[in-house]
Each structure stands twice: as C-alpha cells, then as structure tokens.
TrEMBL record:
Coiled coil: none annotated. The keyword NADP does not apply. CDD domains: HATPase_RsbW-like. One of its GO terms (molecular function) is ATP binding. It holds the Pfam family HATPase_c_2. Keywords: ATP-binding, Kinase, Nucleotide-binding, Serine/threonine-protein kinase, Transferase. InterPro entries: Anti-sigma-factor_SerPK (IPR050267), HATPase_C_sf (IPR036890), HATPase_dom (IPR003594). This is ATP-binding protein. PANTHER family: ANTI-SIGMA-F FACTOR RSBW, ANTI-SIGMA-F FACTOR RSBW-RELATED. Residues 20-126 form the Histidine kinase/HSP90-like ATPase domain.
Length: 130
C-alpha cells in the first residue's frame, strides 16, 4: 500500500467587501505569480481585480480569492467566491453604458472562465489564464 499523497495547500485570501479589496487581491496574485516564477502577472492582476470588484458590487459577504496552477496544463487559475446568489453574466453590448464591460474584458483575455453556484450558497467565478 502506498502512502497517502496530500494535495498542496491552495493560496487563499479572505477579503472584507470594501473598496480596498481589489487592490489587495492584485497584490496577492502578483506575489503568488512571483513565487511560481511567472514574470508576466498583468493579465492575472487585471482578471482578479475585475472578479473581486464584481463580487464586491454585486455579491454578498466576504470575498475569498484562491490562486493555483492547474497541474494538467500548468496554467494559472483565479477563483473568486462570494456569498451572493446572483450569477455574473456578460450583458448585451451598449455603447452608451459607463460600466458593465469588465467580464467581457476578462472573457477576451483568458483561456476559459465560468461560474459555479455552490450548494451551500454563493458562487465561485473562475478564470484560467494563458
């Protein structure tokens, strides 16, 4: 019988839902990418900023950010959890709107993204970077 293999700890940041959350999340992602030797963290910082801002504006409760490298393809993944039931979506194009383009921008910059409602309430919005 082989010994049990423990999964490595996933870096996690718990944020209060306030105007400083996105900045803290950007610094968290930058530090993780630096630890992993990923020199270009610009897309990661932008993605986490948009997802955390959506959680702050449209979600509920504390915001949890997790960042890890998918072992199957070695690509970084950003997950943002909040307690709200409202699922994010990309709205129809509106050239007169002054907001509402963040998720569209994220979708264009990442390999894949999505949202998972959680049985215990809330949801996780995730993005896999290139």
């Amino acid at each position: 019988m082989s010994p049990a293999v423990l999964a490595p700890e996933v870096p996690t940041l718990v944020l209060e839902p306030d105007g400083r959350a996105a900045g803290r999340a950007r610094r968290f992602v930058a530090a993780r990418f630096a630890e992993w030797g990923i020199a270009d963290d610009e897309i990661g910082r932008l993605v986490v900023s948009e997802l955390v801002t959506n959680a702050y504006v449209h979600g509920e409760g504390r915001i949890v950010v997790r960042v890890f490298v998918d072992e199957r393809d070695r690509l970084p993944v950003v997950e943002v959890w909040d307690g709200g039931a409202k699922l994010p979506f990309i709205p129809a194009a509106d050239c007169t709107a002054t907001s509402g383009r963040g998720l569209l921008l994220v979708a264009e910059l990442v390999r894949a993204w999505g949202v998972r409602p959680l049985n215990e309430g809330g949801k996780i919005t995730w993005a896999k970077l290139h």
